[in-house]
Design goal:
Elements (H helix, E strand, L loop, with lengths): L3 E8 L14 E5 L5 H14 L4 E7 L3 H15 L3 E17 L10 E16 L10 E2 L8 E2 L14 E2 L7 H19 L11
Parallel strand pairs: 2-3
Antiparallel strand pairs: 1-4, 3-5, 4-5, 4-6, 7-8
GO molecular function, one term: RNA binding
GO biological process, one term: tRNA 5'-leader removal
Keywords: Nucleus
């Protein structure tokens, strides 16, 4: 394969794995190179300005993490959204072209079928059937603060989400460790003592 270069990738079209979807439901197809800022601007406009009641995020392969990130941002920005998650496999067709064809020969193409994991997540303002597989009820509001949700958070799924944390009490922790080490050394009678991992 060292002489071959990938020239095209296409995804098989398959129906969404949800029942009773409205015909005009918006499907956000998340790709590996998609910018989260662009995806979220469009999705928020659909839900807030155009009054959509449901939206679907889908992605496969390396785009799965970005798909989940978009869903979590959406849930925190809008609140009260019901969620159904479906995981399945999709077939990707990759076309590879020979970069070093034999003299006088034609360039050869190779088509590869790859099965990759895929995720589809339905978010709905309206209640969904809680008994279906993959259902999650709306999260209770508990004071999460969002940073600039317009940032591209592709490098980390938690960047931009800030949870209040208690201030660190390093001074107390250091004193506690000193006491434990001193007591252990006194009891062991040896200078080769190594702490047992209480950091």
């Amino acid at each position: 394969m060292e002489n071959f270069r990938k020239v095209k990738t296409s995804e098989e079209e398959s129906p969404l794995p949800f029942t009773n979807l409205p015909p005009d439901v918006v499907e956000m197809k998340v790709k590996e190179g998609s910018k989260i800022r662009n995806l979220m601007n469009f999705a928020m406009a659909q839900m807030e300005l155009k009054g959509q009641r449901q939206i679907v995020f889908s992605g496969c392969g390396r785009a799965i993490t970005k798909t989940i990130t978009c869903v979590e941002i959406m849930k925190r920005k809008l609140g009260g959204l019901h969620q159904v998650t479906k995981v399945r496999y999709k077939t990707l067709l990759e076309v590879w072209e020979n970069q070093d064809p034999p003299p006088g020969g034609l360039a050869q193409n190779l088509t590869v079928h790859k099965n990759v994991p895929s995720i589809c997540i339905l978010l709905s303002r309206d209640p969904l059937d809680p008994n279906q597989t993959g259902y999650q009820p709306p999260e209770p509001q508990h004071g999460l603060q969002l940073g600039d949700a317009g940032e591209d958070t592709s490098s980390s799924s938690t960047k931009g989400l800030k949870r209040p944390m208690p201030p660190p009490s390093e001074e107390l922790l250091t004193k506690k460790l000193q006491v434990q080490v001193a007591e252990s050394l006194r009891g062991s009678g040896t200078a080769d003592y190594q702490p047992d991992g209480h950091h």
